[in-house]
Write a structure and sequence with these properties.
two-stranded antiparallel sheet; globular; 4% helix; mainly beta; single chain; 140 residues; 1 helix; OB fold (Dihydrolipoamide Acetyltransferase, E2P); 6-stranded antiparallel sheet
């Protein structure tokens, strides 16, 4: 899956040692998508990819990401890992829209759109219209 936007914040690099004794590094950053309803997405880079891509706040990028969720003590946690980062192309439409999120499935080689819910998910619904109708300001 690909997401295009501007890096608005770089979080401090985190390091640690795993159970096997190997050290690890993680750099998280916040990407703000473009379009009518911009979204902020926290993503992470791991290990040597931190040095390979050397992110800068304010840069316009397209990030190829993997999304994975895991359960721990009855709660679910989602991790968005960037595995490839490129400078955003001029003329790219709204970021993270279904039309701009076409990707190639590495395991099957099949190309086609993918959505935040996964390749078998459906596109996100449109934002509701909360404009005032009548004298009531409640959306329902």
């Amino acid at each position: 899956m690909e997401i295009t936007g501007q890096i608005i914040q770089l979080l401090p690099e985190v390091t640690g040692t795993g159970r096997s004794g190997n050290s690890w590094r993680k750099q998280e950053f916040i990407l703000e998508t473009r379009g009518q309803y911009p979204r902020k997405v926290c993503m992470s880079l791991w290990g040597d990819k931190i040095d390979q891509f050397s992110l800068q706040s304010g840069a316009e990028i397209t990030a190829s990401v993997e999304v994975e969720s895991r359960e721990y003590n009855g709660r679910w946690y989602t991790d968005i890992r960037a595995w490839k980062i490129a400078a955003a192309e001029a003329g790219v439409g709204p970021a993270a829209s279904p039309s701009s999120m076409g990707s190639t499935n590495a395991s099957s080689g099949a190309a086609g759109p993918s959505y935040p819910g996964g390749s078998m998910g459906s596109p996100l619904p449109a934002e509701p219209d909360y404009s005032v109708q009548g004298g009531d300001d409640m959306p329902f």
